[in-house]
Amino acid sequence: FKRSNLRNMLVTFQFVTSLVLVIGTIIVYQQLNYIQTKKLGFDKDQVLIINGTGALTANRDAFKNEVGQMAGVKSASYAGYLPVANSSRSDNTFSKEAVMDMKNGFNMQVWNVDYDYVPTLGMEVIKGRNFSKSYGSDSSAVLINETTAKVLGYDNPIGKKIYTSTGSTAGINTAYEIVGVVKNFHYESLRQQVGPLCMRLGNNSWTAAFKINTKDVPGLVSQIEAKWKSMAPEMPFSYQFLDESFDQMYRAEQRIGKVALTFAILTILIACLGLFGLVTYMAEQRTKEIGIRKVLGASVPNIVSLLSGEFLVLVVISVLIASPIAYYAMSQWLTEFAYRIEISWWMFLTAGILAICIALLTVSFQAIRAALMNPVNSLKSE
Questions:
Q1: Which of 90, 138, 190, 366 is deepest in the core (most CB within 10 A)?
Q2: How confident is the model at residue 315 (pLDDT cuts 50, 70, 90)?
Q3: 48 CB neighbour count, 10 Å cutoff
Q4: More confident residue, 301 or 377
Q5: What is the dihedral of CA 177, 181, 187, 192, to 10 degrees?
Q6: How many CB atoms lie within 10 A of CB 6?
């Protein structure tokens, strides 16, 4: 059996490719798990979204109230603005000064919400209060998020005013009083930082959100659908859950994870087939040598170590080559996310141990078989 640099290079290349894909798959799934488990600042679970509620016209309030009283429904809100990408968005320019100019103005998301929006979506008011029907002045009040409070530079913005142009009267800005600060919530994907946002009372009745708590979700949906058909019989009933809309933002990452996993399995399988063929060929070429070594007292572990040692060294070299390549590639991928995991040493160690174990099992199977051969038959074969 002669050493072949080409053979060693091919084996190393196969395992480098496999390891890069395995490490990449681990990091992709860790990032997806991070996205799923990260505290978002709102509750996306068990929130039923009914689309097209603008078609209810005069029955909109009755629909919300009657569904809100059904068993299994905890709270109800009209939620035309949802904290998921591709939802309706509206930007205005605001200032903390009554006279707005290029220096003191800043752009901010503006969401029209109702009194029940914040509790239905599980958001947290960390300063001040939520909108309340007990305060008639709330028609000119706003809730802001933490990012807006930092932009304004107020330690305690409650009671302060911000101004924006409504466009109705040139040069005259409308004042809004800040009555509460909402803890930052991710209304875009985790690829973006949380930007300035404010909420004010207004019409957003084209989508309804219901916080539910029931084991019989299909039964509850059927009840709501029946109520819908009684109020808007000519309009189709359309719904989804908020967590499903949230997951749709990361479909591309989920596809990347599945593709990477598939190719990782395929490349490992091909590499193992190559190893198996090479160790089989090597055992056949060294049949006489193995027989002589056994006659001279070599044990089965000695023979297995002789046959498999060279390939395990190649796998270790592959780990050392693949790790920096995978680290660089996945670091670049993670830069797309403003909120992301840290690449940890255990990810590379796990992939390396997996590759070594698979290679050892592949090589050892044929190596043990060769080592257990009767030396008499081995010598006869030559």
A1: 366
A2: confident
A3: 21
A4: 301
A5: 100
A6: 7
